[in-house]
Amino acid sequence: MIKGIIFDLDGVITDTAEFHYLSWKQLSNEERLNFDKLLNEKLKGVSRAKSLDRILKHNNTTFSKTKQKDCLERKNNYYLQYLKKITQKDYLPRIKKFLQELQASNIKIGLGSASKNALSVLERLEATPFFNVIGDGNSVKKAKPAPDLFLYVAKELGLTPNECIVIEDASSGIEAAHKAGMKAIGIGSKEVLGKAEVVLESTNFLKLEIIQNI
Ligand code: B16
Ligand code: MG
User: Fold this and answer.
1) Domain definitions of the chain by residue range
2) Which of 145, 156, 173, 182 has the greatest count of CB atoms below 10 A from its CB?
3) Does the C-beta of 46 come closer than 6 Å to ligand 1?
């Protein structure tokens, strides 16, 4: 029986992908690196440091550790400026209602996000009170597609993996959920998220029945 739902943040609760894109774009322009929307898509659910690795690889270049650290800090500062724009109106469709429905049904709610800024984003949305456990980019060492983050959140919720369902928009997140022994609902396209037990085009289609029948 499903007793807990673990939500990804970016792309499931709110859409910060555009802010990540604009921040990486600014950094890339300054560093004369190629960066476009297609590459940004491949950074979904990927940690900040790994995202920079992918951008450098895409450009067939390497940076010293010191320069990498500086770039990561600059990118994050740009991103933090964009986060100030988020308000409680910026939930993705039906998400707030769905969180309320889960709460009313006594289903535990966890967050499993790769972002080190997850708490700030939840606070800007005024969503923090919905969550029984918040797992973010600081909670575990191994990022998605490793199962560690979801296992950590399930344990903190006091649930076994098979009592939890993960909701994710990135294929790395679906892989992490399955490795953790959890079923997954993918938000996005079937081509990308086809391995999830259920794929929904948008958060607008999230319903309690789906959770009960998965
Ligand atoms: P930060 P999620 C992920 O969040 C984003 O999808 C990904 O694009 C970003 O690089 C990562 O968080 C790290 O974010 O730089 O804020 O630590 O989808 O796992 O909620
Ligand atoms: Mg995501």
Assistant:
1) 4-15+87-213, 17-83
2) 173
3) yes
| Global ipTM | 0.93
The token pair that represents 194 in the structure block: 């086809």
Q: Hey, what amino acid is at 140?
A: V
- pTM for the full model? 0.94
CATH superfamily of 4-15+87-213: HAD superfamily/HAD-like (3.40.50.1000)
Task: Tell me which ligand sits closest to the C-alpha of residue 121.
Answer: 1
Is residue 115 in contact with ligand 1, taking CB distance under 6 Å? yes
Annotated catalytic, 8?
yes
Cα 106 to chain centroid, rounded: 23
* pLDDT tens digits along 9-27: 999 999 998 899 999 999 9
Question: What are the tokens at 90?
Answer: 């910026």
Reduced to 3 states, what is the DSSP secondary structure of residue 12?
Answer: coil
